Amino acid sequence: MKQYTQQDMVRIAKRENNTKRSYLVVNRLQGKHIPVKGTDALDVFDALAEKLKNTYYNEKILIAGFAETATAIGARLAVTLGSYYIQTTREPIEGVDYLYFTESHSHATEQKLVKNDIDRIIGSIDRIVFAEDEVTTGNTIMKIIEIIEKTYDKKIKFSVASLLNGMNKEYLAKYKDKGIDIHYLVKTQHDTYTDIADSFKGDGEYIERDISPVAFSETAFSENYTNTRRICESVDYDTACKGLAEYIYGEIKPDRTDSVLVIGTEEFMYPAVYTAKALNDKGINAVTHSTTRSPIAVSREEIYPVHKRYELASFYDDERTTFIYDLKKYDKVIVITDSKNDSPAGRYTLINALRSVGNDNITIYRWCKDERK
Question: Does this model's pTM top 0.90?
Answer without folding.
Answer: yes
